[in-house]
Amino acid sequence: MTPEMISNLAHTRHPIKSPLGDASVRQLLDRVLPRDGGRVLDLGCGTAEWLLRALETRPGLRAVGVDLSEKSLEIARAAAEARGVADRLELHCQKAEEYTSPEPFDAVLSVGSAHAFGGLLPTLEGARARLAPTGSVLIGDGYWLSEPTAEAVEVLGEFTDLASTVDRVVGEGWVPVYGHASTRQELDHYEWSLWGTLAEWALDHPGHEDGAEVLDWSHARRDEWLHAYRDSFGFLTLVLRRTPAL
């Protein structure tokens, strides 16, 4: 079983694929989506759960998702058909940074997928290049709640604290118009859901050739969370507009 397959399995009960509850997702979408019609782009959409919820929220909206995983896009297409929004969803299997469109978008999303562009600020540059002048960006990435251990940095990569993260974004020409720092409940629910779902699948498939591997994976990831980064990792989601030219 590939890491991608394991990830999709782990997110079965948490398809938004970020440490955010449903109420937070609704509020963030309400702040970033255009009110009447419009077009939204998700860079690194995965199974496109953000776009599916956006399309259900705004009947006149049209959406485009870009991701490298054809398997994830297959899941997205099936879900779009089941939820009655397939006619307004366009999906592309390619690198996010290589996607181009003849028209800019009213909203650009990239939550939990900054790795697609190599980090938070490069992701914002990628969003800017595809955003209409009056459009909004929804971006979500990690930050340090407290001084991280060396193991936490090794597992998750380099972040800064909350204030420094916002300062960096503002310094690149963006105005935060809304933000949400995931709560302890949201962060814990996300981790318990991921690694518990994997463990449950392995226990329910004792004869499967990948069962032992998946169970070991769930144990290892849970231990990393509890011992390496639970107390230091936070997740910030921002709604941004361009800084006006003065």
Which features would summarize this protein structure in a list?
7-stranded mixed β-sheet, 22% strand, transferase, Rossmann fold, Methyltranfer_dom, 246 residues, CFA/CMAS, single chain, alpha/beta
SSE succession = HHEHEHEEHEHHEHHE
Supply the CATH class of the domain at 19-183 and 235-240. Answer: Alpha Beta
What is the 3D shape? Answer: globular
Number of helices: 9
CATH architecture of the domain at 19-183 and 235-240: 3-Layer(aba) Sandwich
Record the strand order, biggest sheet: 3-2-1-4-5-7-6
Which structural class fits the helix and strand makeup?
alpha/beta
Tell me the helix content. 40-55%
Mean pLDDT: 96
Using the coordinates shown, work out and report the CATH topology of the domain at 19-183 and 235-240: Rossmann fold
| N-to-C CA distance | 53 Å
Number of beta-strand segments: 7
Largest sheet: 7 strands, mixed
Portion in strands:
15-25%
Domain Methyltransferase: 36-144
Protein name: Class I SAM-dependent methyltransferase
Pfam family, one: Methyltransf_31
InterPro entries: CFA/CMAS, Methyltranfer_dom, SAM-dependent_MTases_sf
Summarize the structure.
The protein has 246 residues and is of the alpha/beta class.
Can you lay out the helices and strands and say which pair or pack?
Blueprint: H1 3-10, H2 22-32, E1 39-43, H3 49-57, E2 62-67, H4 70-82, E3 89-93, E4 105-111, H5 120-128, E5 131-144, H6 150-156, H7 162-171, E6 174-181, H8 184-204, H9 211-229, E7 233-242
